[in-house]
Amino acid sequence: MRIGLFVTCLVDAMRPSIGFASVSLLEAAGCEVTIPDTQTCCGQPGFNSGDRPSGIQLGLAFLRDFEGFDAIVAPSGSCIGMIHDYPTLFKDDLALQARLNVLTAKCYELTDFLVNHAPKPLSPGRLSMTVSYHDSCTGLRQLEIKSQPRFLLQQTQGVELREMKDAEICCGFGGSFSIKLGDIATQMADKKCAHALETGCDAIVGGDLGCLLNIEGRLRRRGDPHTQVKHVAELLAESLVNPQLEKS
Amino acid sequence: MKIRSEQFKGNVRKQLADEALQSNLSRFGGGFADRRRDALVKVDDFEALRDRGASIRAEVLENLDYWLLKFEAEAQRRGTQVHWAETGAEANQILLNIARNAGVQRVVKSKSMVSEESGLNEVLTEAGMTVTETDLGEYILQLANEPPSHIIAPAIHKSRDEVSALFEKHHGTPRTDDIPSLCEEARGQLRPHFLAADMGVSGGNFLIAETGSVTIVTNEGNGRMVTTLPRVHVAMTGIEKVLPTLEDLSAILRLLPRSATGQDITNYVSILTGVRDEGAMDGPQENHVILVDNGRSRLLGGDLHDALRCIRCGACMNHCPVYQNIGGHAYGWVYPGPIGAILTPAFLGLEKALDLPQASTLCAACEVVCPVRIPLPDLMRVLREKELTQGLRPWHERLSIRLWRWLALHPGWYAFAARWGTRLLRGMAGSDRLLHTLPGLDGWTEGRDMPAPQGETFRDQWRKKQAAERKIIPIRLDPSPSEKKAGLKK
Ligand code: SF4
Fold first, then answer.
1. Contact at 8 Å (CB) between B43 and B49?
2. What ipTM did this prediction achieve?
3. What number does CATH give the domain B5-299?
4. What angle do CA B175, B180, B186 make, to 5 degrees?
5. pLDDT digits over B160-205, tens only?
6. What class, spelled out in words, does domain A2-116 have in CATH?
7. pTM (two decimals)
8. Which positions 376-415 of B are in contact with A (Cβ < 8 Å)?
9. Integer Cα distance of B4 and B333 in angstroms
């Protein structure tokens, strides 16, 4: 299965390890991974700020970069959500809309792909830690990403998943919202941190880097240098290095 | 009502710093949301009910003129007088005339958000009448001289202590923290007002076209008394509130209380039709309905049309994390939360509420609970688009969006900018690999650090890795000559 990996702009700039982790996981699940070099961003930052041309023009660029693949995967529910909205931006061009419909139907968020669409099931390895999973909004509400990352974490030997209170409530990132109305965003992030820490977890885990930067940013400012904030892909890829032990 | 939506950011700062408010918000936060969730467990297919609700409301709005005229004809046939007001001020004037003609001195009110829009109480008071709010929440706010902060629980921002202190001040009664005694006390205070009132003013949750009735959905008995005891009753409500039939009302009533408070049904559902029958003991001798536009018709057929489906259940604010952190007053007008972020700019004009459509992470918690499936995040995005295209956003924001878009469409330049941008950020970070301040982004760094970029960009690293694996010399993706020349490659 030929997979086009959409790395996302945030991962490209801020945390490339999530991109590399995604590649390892997809390969471990039997995929052949290609990363088109002309990809940049799905257009969401502009589009959500009210700039429709951002969505339209980057939608076309996405079509150019990814039309040929069997499936397209991104380590972000938020970007895949935006991509799934592309067809609605081309109501006046039915031919183009049809092409985008075909394309977006095979665009998946990483954990959803691994659990439900990969050529062979991923078998995570072993780690030793307790984690708490934050549900990012677009993945959760638009793409119904909820059980997939949890399933993979539970498959990982030595990982204990502890649910935090209000895991489904927004962390306050919201793209430019987190800057325009930073004081509200900060308070929302603060509550998220508090709920996660109540579980006593070693790592707060999520599937969208935007949220993770927001949560980690607040966590560090609160004076917590220890609790890790990780993308689920990073954890799963790290686990692959340690094969599972036979249960005695 | 006084408009404070222009000072949204200042309002927010105040609300976030208000410790009492924050404690009240977090104490009740999620209360309605939990109750809604529990109530839905008992319903077979709530999603199908939502579909039905959405289509009933959408179909009415398709033929709003027809249903309103039908309502008018049926109401008049049963002795109700129907008035049309284009603005809130006009609605107030109509009501004032009714009151003067009927020699009204004392007015009792049950909850009406439209009368908050029009600022009715001040007008009546200035005209020398006494006005008493009889909804418990509204009564508390009248004593406190504050506007409502929620559409179904107007005094939700007040704790029982604050209420008790208000009652002590205004009724001269001793403090208590027992909620039933506080309710009893309010009841005792209100009863003489009901008995002495010449006129009752109510809102109207729904207008029923086939019978010309006004429907009121409440949990307190006050609505019944306001609409039946005084000799004159006036309902003041928005033109979008009409439903074709009682059958439709019953479908909507399956949605409204569950979405609002998690109740299967409210304590009272009143369907008020016409005037007192000859020889009957109660009911108004004069019954009026004022149909208020106040900006609504401007939305019909436009890109905010769907917002008119709203049945004012409050679920969107109960589930909105922004509302739950700043409370309703921050929004600065009658309607707070996600629906307020749309209706306020839509009714008052975008320039009066520039920050409201921005006050959302677009997390869609509202959209998935709205009983009539209003795509609230999409509508906020529509308003953001209007702000941008009408030049209502600050110049630096407009510029940076354009610049960003240009870069994102030119992968070579984009890679170049990302490469140097991340290097710069890494250079600025301390040994803890955090950025504590970022020029121009203090909105972020006031309350949060920014984790520094990890290293080279993914694409730079990937190219190097691939080149090493294939033992070929890496080609750096820099702006291609044609891109450099043409500026735009398509
Ligand atoms: S927008 Fe929907 S959820 Fe919000 S008050 Fe109106 S009907 Fe209720």
1. yes
2. 0.96
3. 3.40.50.10420
4. 70
5. 999 999 999 999 999 998 999 999 999 999 999 999 999 999 999 9
6. alpha beta
7. 0.95
8. 381, 383-389, 393, 397, 401, 404-405, 407-409, 411, 414
9. 6
